[in-house]
Amino acid sequence: MTTVRTIKAKQRPGDRVFSASTTIAGCIILAALAAVAVFLLAESVPAVVSGPDELRDGADTFWAYVAPLAFGTLWAALIALVIAFPISIGIALFISHYAPRRIAQGLGYIVDLLAAVPSVVFGLWGIKVLAPLVTPFYQELTTNLGWIPLFSPPASGTGRTVLTVGIVLAVMIIPIITAISREIFLQTPVLHEEAALALGATRWEMISMAVIPFARPGIISAAMLGLGRALGETMVVAMVLSPAVVISFVLTGSSNPATIAGNIALNFPDAYGVQVNALIASGLVLFVITLVINSVARIVVNRRKAFSGAN
After folding, report:
1. pLDDT of residue 215
2. Three-class SS of residue 118?
3. Which of 223, 266, 222, 264 is nearest to 242 (CA)?
4. Does the 14-307 domain belong in CATH 1.10.3720.10?
5. What is the pTM assigned to this prediction?
């Protein structure tokens, strides 16, 4: 009976230093995340157990206070994702499979530059340009489609609605989703594309049969990254939205639900006592929402990990 001896390769000093540094970096990230979670939990307790006299907006409990904010956060981010996702995928496919090389390179640079524009610039554009521009359009929507609950009259006279915020957020996350999706599309095996074309498929049929299935996990990752940016955006919401403490699905009305990040930015300077704890506790709710959404996205991606170019 023969025994098989495994010979381990001797690690060089550079390998040991690199391995130790990456381990330390990973531990630092986990420690920082745990420290943030502990801080949020500790500071949230006074707000959770407080009475209605200590909270803002006359809420009876903390959960009644944070529910409209959580709804507004998810609603605005969902609107942005619905608008941005198909546009981003179309731009990424055009750059990777349709545009001539020079045009594709130029568009790629522009997309990357748009991702670096500060959010305050988008906020100024939204409040000074977009809001006045879409106000007549909102009036037409409520006049002709007012029977649909999403466009119930009366329309906002300023254009500072949750739909306007969703459009601005969509413009902000389009470069993120586009840049990641473009790189994933370019990683599609050339043999798969050539095989589809050799079988007589058109370019779109080749994309639908070879590129999209290969890139689906990466597309999901890109969408979730853009959604995370929209969930945590502060300046755009604080500058553009005219918020109220309501839960409303109306897109064009003057009474719009606030978001957690925007509410913290607007009220934190004037808050005191338990009100500060309530704002921190709402930040904990946003932390949990983001964590849950990213975890679900990671589970979906890992189901097709073998086909993913994003892992």
Report:
1. 86
2. coil
3. 266
4. yes
5. 0.86
